[in-house]
Fold this protein.
Amino acid sequence: MKQFMDNDFLLNNEMAKMLYHQVAEKAPILDYHCHIDPQEIAEDKKFANITQVWLYGDHYKWRQMRSNGVDERYITGDASDYEKFEKWAETLEKAIGNPLYHWSHLELQRYFDYHGVLNKETAKEVWELCNQKLSGDDMSVRNIIRKSHVTHICTTDDPADDLHWHQVLAEDPDFAVKVLPAWRPDKAMNIEKPSYKEYLETLGAAAGFTITSFAELKAALINRMDYFGARGCKASDHALEYVMCASYTEAEIEEIFAKRMKDAPLSQEEELQFKTAFMTFVGREYHERNWVMQLHYGCKRDNNTLLFNKLGPDTGFDCINNYAPSAEMANFLNGLNMTDELPKTIIYSLNPSDNEVIDTIIGCFQDEKTVGKIQHGSAWWFNDHKKGMTDQLVSLANLGLLSNFIGMLTDSRSFLSYTRHEYFRRILCNLIGTWVEDGEYPADRKVLDRIVRDISYDNALKYFDFK
């Protein structure tokens, strides 16, 4: 029997151990998509207790606590931070087979030097240990990032954001990590939302003029892209129900926009036409600017109306959506490619059944200008567990070129989530090591080391054109 989460956790053969400990473990981290707050980095925030780090805003953990019958008071309510932590500890001991069990204990090991097991009986001990560690200056936000060997962080930012805190960080000589904005224009695209007109006023104010037409919306977005680009932006991100491709004319889009400005109802087809036009426009702009376009799709959001109305979005009530017509995604990419305006693109689906679909589509649009120009994004959200990561890697290896993969990201709001990169790298090294041990690939350490290092860090550095 193996020891619980020891130094060779998830590494089941000698080649896997060598590749991880000698190569992957030593590579720095490039976190090219996350949801952390740049203000907290700029102000070098310190956390009063482990609940603030672990449970504030973490809907992954909230879902599990609800599944364990925990009252909402101990999840998002007015219970004390210790009570919330205790309820999480009681839940965690039941989470056998869940990635949260591994992530939580990896974070305890790496950041708090605790190698025991968190459960109801040890909750008080762990609470006191973590809080004592968090009181030290070496556990401020910046020092957590430094300790994690992070070189680049891409946050997620609305086009109307003034990026003040990014500017503060860029001008700070005491913090070498690059904290860069990433463009997330969902609010400008989601024409069906009740708050759409109100948002256009905010966007127009940021751009310096009033938005009354689709042409003016595009001009405002160009204005803000210039602003983001001057502050180091290299990537966009889009949350889509699916990657749509509806036919349209520019005149039709202006008519649809005008209807929305008059509060006239739009048909579903009109919404799809508008979103297709929007995505086509921004895709061309990304190509012009050498930005990476990230497409996240396959999520059905806010399913529990009762609790959504009480708690709002991103509180744990989303699920996988199995409607995603692959033909439309292929047609959308093809439309941009026909005029040689297809940007570097990363495609993520929340539905693991889409792995092979994505891998066959990306192979249609690769070219000689960028190695791995169209990427199958890492296993995302409900898939970033051992099986989900393995399935994504195997599918990409079977149908594409795994060696050109840009690797892992945290997609997290927590500063302790960098251990997800370790979790991924252990799974990657074990998979490759197993292929070698089984005689499916030669034991050429020079080539294998390069593949592991590239996927862990170097491929992403080149892909995003970071210096």
Notes: The chain has 20 helices and nine strands.
